[in-house]
## 1
Amino acid sequence: MEFHLWLSLAFICVMGALSPGPSLAVVVKNTLFGGARQGYATAISHGAGVALYAAFTAVGIGVIIVQSPMLFTIIQYAGAAFLLYLGVKALMSKQQSVELDHCEQDDTEQSSQQKNAINGWRDGFLIAFLNPKLAIFFLALFSQFVDQQASMEKKVIMVSTVGIIDAVWYLIVAFLFSRGPILEKLKRNSHIIDRITGSFLILLAARVVLN
């Protein structure tokens, strides 16, 4: 995979991970209530869930290319249109918020019950795998990078990049939240993250038309 294309993919993955959302809320909650170990488990399993979705998408696109190049072209342009929509939407977004209900521990008994109820491996994987928007996003994103000459090595690199960046980011979140809060900074700067991501998605969508 060409280095500049990999950088584009990695950048989008990083900015997407930085944007506050339900996944961040789950990692934060599990870290606060279950400790660093549960936070790390949530982060790793979330990355695995995202990578699995990415793998399904990459393999599916490969099959479509072989069986129907015309259908792939349609999907590629539809994907570009979807990325353009996401980019414009991100540019117009306002500051987001991540709801963390019941983050204050009322007493020791309640805290202990919450900690025992947390399963980071389960929660992280399910919050990713049960999100159908990921399938749509990866279909739109990967259709911009996979072509008829795409090798299995290229697809593995793409899938690995997606999963590793996602897991590493949430591992960092779990590490920091087990020692000090960063959520407020993310919330305050979420609109900046969205604008950078939106601009890059629009440029990526334009690449299909310009080529």
## 2
Amino acid sequence: MPQLFKHPESIAAAFLARERSLPHSYKEVGDTQKETPVPGFDNDFNFIELGRSDAVWEAAKAAIRAWKMFPGDWACIWPETTPIRVGEVVAMQARVMGLWWLNSCRIVYVIDLPDKFGFAYGTLPGHVECGEELFMVERTADGTVRYVLKAFSRPRFWLARLGYPIARAYQRKFVRESKASMLRFVAEH
């Protein structure tokens, strides 16, 4: 249920307890790993260069582990201490048009390679959208560290379908501010 203030931990915990054992709200689980677009969804791919050095690489991985890609003033994860591990369930809270919405997601897969680190999470029935999002940092052959966001989504809740242009605008806002959050974290560490 949307509300005027961020949902308290007790509400978020009860929400996650109900959602934890439910299946994903889409059948294309894991498809952010594919190179091709997922049919029937909006497909988005974004990235930003974070810098070049071992320090930037380590800071970028630390940012992902600590969920710092979420611009906390209007979009955040609860609990913030959730480890990056397959099967973990989180509540993503977002303030849209003055109301806070509580959404559920489960980590689908984790990438932990020498030059790639991140994870994808997918929506559960308690999410207003339906789909999956990949949050990843990668180090290219020339040492450039990039933050990558890849997603496929479509509205699931009737209000999200009705307000589709607004929902897409907030998704674009999230991408912009997520990239800025990652840049800021890396610069500070």
## 3
Amino acid sequence: MKPQVALSSIIVELHVPNFKQVIEFYGKLGFKTVWQKPPKGQLGYLVMKKNSSVLAFFCGNSQVYNHSFFKRYPKNTPRGYGVEVCVYLSEESIGDYYNHVIKALGKKCIVEELKVKPWGSRDFRIIDPFGYYICVREPSNILEP
């Protein structure tokens, strides 16, 4: 029997040029480093976790721009264009966490303030140093409409 390798069958992997910025930014959001393979060519990898939310980061150096797909685009293209990374809060109040994010990172990273959405739950959105768009949501079961 093969060991379980992930909490989910889908893992979000963000391709970034700098793990130090990732650790600093996501650390302020409450994510902790689970493990890290230092960047060397295109072999760097970093896994971070907050509660049951897991994010993986690839490369960690300028070699990320030589990835066979991404090298087609200018280096200043936002890496997460058209992608929203969702983080569900299960153990803390979304209002308290929103205030924590503002205190830790400042309002400049908030791109949509905390508010009740038409579907009845609250969320807010931030942007990370590499252009990834992050939605922080109240807990819900995405498998139920």
## 4
Amino acid sequence: MTSVRYRDVPLRRIPIPVDGRVPTGSTNAYLVGEDPALLVDPPARTTELDAAVDGANVEHIAITHAHPDHVGAVAPYAAATDATVWCRYGREGRFAEATGVAPDRTFAEGTELPVAGGVGVIDIPGHAPDHVAFETGPGTLCGDVAVAEGSVAVAAPEGDVRAYLVALRRLYARNPPRLYPGHGPAIEDPRATCERLLRHRLDRERRVLEAVRSGAADVDAVLDAAYDADLAGLRDLARATVVAHLDKLAVEGAVAFDRDAETVGPR
């Protein structure tokens, strides 16, 4: 049984092409409701998104997290619509630096945004420290915590593997009707997807730990041992992922990790 208790409202996904290494090559902007409506994660202005915004009474704008591919059009749409701009309480500085706009209001977990049908907020950090999800009747806008295919980057210095695993388990427990991710199509089986992403992340952790126990003594050695895929063009991201896993293992006492020197050893 789903834990979401909001009324069904129109929810529209508008994929926007973005520069950079993101899944599918685009970021999803979402319009929740119609009058009033909430605009979530506008990465850039496009003709399609302009038309969607023009066709709705956008009174609120919010983001799941302040990564560049999710915030590029917050300022222009705020100016065009005179909407109330929201951000996570305690992250106002990060939000303003990323968007170029100071928030009008803040939310925390448990806040309900005043949008037709209701929109709830839950904290799901891990991919980013300020990451939240928005619960609606049709499903949960989960940003970059889940994708229908592939995996999610949890990379140092911002990525927190321990928090990310908790975020997946929270989404699994809440069991929304669907997950609406930051990249790619809607996820029709949220629990199966959360389980798949958990298995992937825990398998990567196992490989990292095995590499250290087998004698890998620095980050690059762990990287080479833990990945058996071609990392051409992705080595920097994979390396940052290894560092995030080593941070987690060090906190849990499984390895000794000197992040400054990038050396590691078993405990």
